[in-house]
Amino acid sequence: MSRLHEVFTSLRSCKRCALVPYITAGDPSPELTVPLMQALVKAGADVIELGVPFSDPMADGPVIQRAGERSLAKGVGLRHVLQMVKHFRQDDQVTPVVLMGYANPIEALGIEQFASLSGQAGVDGVITVDYPPEEAGRFVQVIQRAGIDPIFLLSPTTAADRIELILKQAAGFIYYVSLRGVTGSSNLDIDDVRSQIETIRSRTSLPIGVGFGIRDPEHAAQVAQFADAVIIGSRLVAEVEAAGDDAVPRLAELLEQFRRAVDEVAR
Question: Catalytic positions, please?
């Protein structure tokens, strides 16, 4: 049983929603990435989503783009990110770690090599924004052989036939993009997201996480009423940008606010 499956099964049994913070590996510095991951777990994270910096992050808004640029400027690449996960695993064998990034670094390393190194490091899932489900068959097979869950994005504009194709290949959980646009966009329509989640849930038993546009604890609490996971990205990355070397305590304090808000929701 995968770590992701164990976490979501445990949370479902006690009717709790998962809290999934996102940070960009290497930001504000490579030395602070693992301490940030550890602090987020202590602050209430159920899963850590770790962004792999890339030079052309098409799905990311300005906040995460800047984080990626800062990380790349410090020389952080995919191999470094995997070493960070391996370091994190020395003290934490329980919390799932999901990588989020783009196909180019994976293809440059080689899919087989990526899967092998990721499995050895302790990666639990991979979200690759630009591997379309129609072309992801080999990638899915290779990472699943390494014990890694392929996690796909669904959005308000995903056609019904593509939803079916994605649901056949996905594992771990489904990542629902709650609005049109890039990460960090605003104007979250809670009623529309709820309706979309209900439709997806009728077609899969996989947990469904909601991300993009959740900027404050109040929105997180609203989403937690119907989602299996609340994913917080740009809001946390903006806090890292503002805090710099003080990012660890500042990010932990902010995530604790989200944790309290999510836990107050009874489903």
Answer: 49, 60
